[in-house]
Amino acid sequence: MARQEMLNSHYSYKKKVYVGKMKRQGNQNSGIMAQMMYYMSESRLRGKIRRITDALEADPVDVQTLKELTISADGLITVDLRCKVWTKLLNVNAFEFSRNQAKKKDNSELKQFHEHKYWRQVNLDVDRSHRRFPAEMRASRRRSLQEQLVRVIMRVLCQNQDLHYYQGYHDVAVTLLLVVGEDLATALLEQMSLHQLRDFMEGTMEKTTKMLAFLHPIIEEADPELDDFLIRSEVGQVFALSWLITWYGHVLKDFATIVRLYDFFLATHPLMPVYFGAALVIRRRTDVLSGECEMSFVHHLLSRVPDDLPDYVEELITTAHSLFCKYPPEKLAGAVERYLKESMAVAKHKQFLRELEDQRPDSVLRQRRKQLALYTNNELEVSPNFQSPNQTNTYTKLAVWTLTATVGTMALYVLSSAKRWI
Amino acid sequence: MFYDTVDEESEREVTEQVFKIIIIGDSGVGKTCLAHRFATGKFPERTEATIGVDFWERKLQLNGTNIRLQIWDTAGQERFRKSMVVHYYRNVSAVIFMYDITREGSFRALSTWLQEYGHYGFDESDTGEVPKLMIGNKCDLIHERIVSSNQARKFADLHNMPMWEISTKNDEELETIESIFLTLSHKLVKSRTFMDRPPRYTTVDSSTEQSTRSRTKSGKFRTSQKKIKLKNDSGNHKKKNCCESS
Ligand SMILES: Nc1nc2c(ncn2[C@@H]2O[C@H](COP(=O)(O)OP(=O)(O)OP(=O)(O)O)[C@@H](O)[C@H]2O)c(=O)[nH]1
Ligand SMILES: [Mg+2]
């Protein structure tokens, strides 16, 4: 019951969207037809969930299949599956890190935070992150989550002194936090920072700039006329900066769409957000070409992501993916070549992919941890997230739940993602 | 979109001048608030960290000339300005250097900002005349003031900038903010008119410096030309154009 409640609150802001969409689409395909499609989609998604679960339980975990399923339409579908699959896609052992967490949250940690050079900036940005939380969330709850958000970020920064914080990093962290809860978010964020986000976290933005510079060559290959226009307008590519470094978390309003994109990017290449950006710009070619060929005009037009993007996010994902296959980074000429040699994110990617192949399913990891606990005795107590579902915070409860339950999610998720598939 | 469609026709006939004004300064000094305040008249209840650059627009009429002010709001974090923001220093009509009167660091950083701006080769020496302004923000936080007006004024004089202390939050200061931009616009229109003449002409009279400063009730410095400017603008006062901040 409590579980149901917290899930409701988690989804309530999505349901609003869903109601709106239902009304609109109800007019188009009314009655029986709509119902039929509803059941067809339901069985399709049910099948997909089963396949994801199977891939998770294979030993070693079937990462390849997980990736395919993550990329394909609807992504990972439920919060529950996201927790599990994101963990596998980032090679995080959910049962290991949880034992290390609880020692913290004491004064020495806080002191360390305060002394960190990015402490002020992190707080400044988190304090201004209201919009990233569901509008109807109680202020007290939001504040508590904002405190967690600061901890998640600061822990990763303190653990990895060579990582530099950038404004926008908090947009990534908040997305993870809202889906998986504080502890798991810390572990996932750390892995992302060492891998996909690595280039953004250098001392300077040099590599980020080079990464962004891929945008034009991609568009040039796919739509030369459009790219020519963009080049003539001298718009550059700064309009896409926040897209890349926040994985669209900073610019999209709809949380369900943001996490869908996170699915996609986690299962693919670090440069995929740029390909997605190219797909988005290409989709808007008529708007662009019919406007003024002038820097401020084009910058303004492109830096704002269309409100109706959630309606065609799956199409954009497909386009981005095929752009990537057709024009892979290695084949794009010019200045971008140098980037490929220098990039840590790209260099690490291959090795990272190999490491992913060798993960044990959660059932084995859980078992292993239990055995370990027999030796180290009371250490099991130290993980509040996994031990006490009565904790005050909903999102940490969510993490407990996601690691233990798989059944019964159907009804709920049907409501929450209906907007996509009716 | 952000062009005022109603006006489009009339603007075709009458020429419109576009000015690009860039606001730079440390993160959190209130750059987004200032841009928002000027473009919409309101203090934004919530802002978010600015990533990259973004601009706001407002149309004005000044002595019969239609002008469009583009206020470019930039990211404050150092890493962004070094690699991205500099790109936007090009072709600006004016630069606003902004600091927070409650944060010493943001004031001290102004020298770096000024240096950088000069370093990238867009200083007066080569582009003719790009007016620089200095603005200290958050004056409503009287008890938290760290940077004294005197100290700031000295610095501003040293760098030949007019200086104002404001609060973007305080509604009563909207007028001050408007007058700053109007004064600036006036200067910009004037110097553009002289553009084709030898540079000496353009540097002779700058409305901002010529005007005598007077202290107002609130203790802020204002230019004496303010009243006239507001009057000139009266017909167009409500014609505001804003772009949502992202
Ligand atoms: N008390 C007070 N607070 C202000 C004032 N102006 C801005 N603030 C607050 O200062 C904070 C930062 O303002 P922003 O406008 O977002 O700062 P910014 O300079 O754009 O920061 P970046 O985008 O990170 O570079 C916000 O929480 C504002 O509410 C002011 O005049 N008085
Ligand atoms: Mg800002």
Automatic annotation (TrEMBL), chain A:
<feature type="domain" description="Rab-GAP TBC">
    <location>
        <begin position="76"/>
        <end position="269"/>
    </location>
</feature>
<protein>
    <recommendedName>
        <fullName>Rab-GAP TBC domain-containing protein</fullName>
    </recommendedName>
</protein>
<dbReference type="InterPro" id="IPR000195">
    <property type="entry name" value="Rab-GAP-TBC_dom"/>
</dbReference>
<dbReference type="InterPro" id="IPR045913">
    <property type="entry name" value="TBC20/Gyp8-like"/>
</dbReference>
<dbReference type="GO" id="GO:0005789">
    <property type="term" value="C:endoplasmic reticulum membrane"/>
</dbReference>
<keyword id="KW-0343">GTPase activation</keyword>
<dbReference type="GO" id="GO:0005096">
    <property type="term" value="F:GTPase activator activity"/>
</dbReference>
<dbReference type="GO" id="GO:0006888">
    <property type="term" value="P:endoplasmic reticulum to Golgi vesicle-mediated transport"/>
</dbReference>
<dbReference type="Pfam" id="PF00566">
    <property type="entry name" value="RabGAP-TBC"/>
</dbReference>
<dbReference type="InterPro" id="IPR035969">
    <property type="entry name" value="Rab-GAP_TBC_sf"/>
</dbReference>
TrEMBL record, chain B:
<comment type="similarity">
    <text>Belongs to the small GTPase superfamily. Rab family.</text>
</comment>
<dbReference type="GO" id="GO:0005525">
    <property type="term" value="F:GTP binding"/>
</dbReference>
<protein>
    <recommendedName>
        <fullName>Ras-related protein Rab-33</fullName>
    </recommendedName>
</protein>
<feature type="region of interest" description="Disordered">
    <location>
        <begin position="199"/>
        <end position="246"/>
    </location>
</feature>
<dbReference type="InterPro" id="IPR001806">
    <property type="entry name" value="Small_GTPase"/>
</dbReference>
<feature type="compositionally biased region" description="Basic residues">
    <location>
        <begin position="214"/>
        <end position="229"/>
    </location>
</feature>
<dbReference type="Pfam" id="PF00071">
    <property type="entry name" value="Ras"/>
</dbReference>
<feature type="compositionally biased region" description="Polar residues">
    <location>
        <begin position="203"/>
        <end position="213"/>
    </location>
</feature>
<dbReference type="InterPro" id="IPR027417">
    <property type="entry name" value="P-loop_NTPase"/>
</dbReference>
<dbReference type="GO" id="GO:0003924">
    <property type="term" value="F:GTPase activity"/>
</dbReference>
<dbReference type="InterPro" id="IPR005225">
    <property type="entry name" value="Small_GTP-bd"/>
</dbReference>
<keyword id="KW-0547">Nucleotide-binding</keyword>
